[in-house]
Amino acid sequence: MATPSNPQKFAVEVKPSAIDGLGVFAAEPIPAYKKIGELRGEAVSVREARRRARQQQRIMIVEVSDRRAIDASHSQDPMRYTNHSCAPNTVLRIQRGRVEFYAMRAIAPGEELTANYGTTHHEGKLECRCGAPNCVGRI
Predict the structure, then answer these.
(1) How confident is the model at residue 3 (pLDDT cuts 50, 70, 90)?
(2) Residue 119's CB: how many other CB atoms inside 10 A?
(3) What range defines the domain where residue 43 resides?
(4) Taking the alpha carbons of 62, 35, 105, 80 in that order, is the dihedral positive or negative?
(5) How much is the pLDDT for 45?
(6) Residues with Cβ < 8 Å from 32, sequence gap 6 or more?
(7) Which of 18, 33, 59, 80 could form a disulfide linkage to 72, CB 3.0–4.6 angstroms apart?
(8) In a domain, 33, yes or no
């Protein structure tokens, strides 16, 4: 399934999310600790990424180093729709400048893929809608 033009290792689908807007959902079982896919997009400076983030309600930007960020706002990769959760089932890892998602546990078909984005450009001003029992309330 994964090719240079398609970094997905497992089938996923984008559809409406109970968390926020669109989400990405497992379309097949995903085993624990396996790479699911990548977030790709335009490489920009961190300064430019932060400028763009101030102008967007839904931010699809990840800083991969002190100098470089990936803006997936116009990407076709489904992983850009991975919503935040305080009880995530995936973890985001930066590997050689790539933004990769890995399953933290086995994920069932139909389950929404989520990640804890930690400190974000929202700076705690955005209400978290993840619904997790341990939700911190803001992101």
Answers:
(1) low
(2) 8
(3) 12-115
(4) positive
(5) 92
(6) 103, 104, 105, 106
(7) 80
(8) yes
The residue among 77, 70, 135, 80 whose CA lies nearest residue 113 is 80
Specify if 122 maps to a domain. no
Q: How many domains does the chain have?
A: 1
The answer to whether position 99 is within a domain reads yes
**pLDDT tens, residue by residue, 9-36:** 999 999 999 998 999 999 999 999 999 9
CATH code (residue 106): 2.170.270.10
What's the whole-number average pLDDT of the chain? 88
φ and ψ at 49, to 5 degrees?
A: -60, -45
| Residue-level pLDDT at 44 | 93
Q: What angle do CA 104, 132, 54 make, to 5 degrees?
A: 85
Q: What is the DSSP letter of 78?
A: G
How is residue 83 written in tokens? Answer: 């919503």
Token pair 């089938």: residue: 11
Whether the CB-CB separation of 124 and 139 falls below 8 Å is answered with: yes
Domain-embedded: residue 121: no
